[in-house]
Amino acid sequence: MTSEFEIIKRYFSDSSGDAVLGVGDDGAIINIDSSREMVVTMDTLVCDRHFTKDADPASIGFKSLAVNLSDLAAMGARPRHILLSITLPSVHEAWISRFRDGVKLLLDRYSVGLVGGDTTKGSTLSISVTAIGDVVTGTAIRRDKMSIGDDLWVSGIVGLGAIGLLVERELLDVDPTVKRDFLDRLHRPMPRVELGQALSGVASAAIDVSDGLVADALHLANSSEIALEIEFDKIPVHHTLSTKKYEAVVQDCILGGGDDYELLFSAPREMSRAIQNIATQCDLALTRIGKAVPGRGVTILDQGISLTRDFKKGFDHFDKCD
Ligand code: ADP
Ligand code: MG
Question: Is residue 259 domain-shared with residue 127, that is, in the same domain?
Answer without folding.
Answer: no
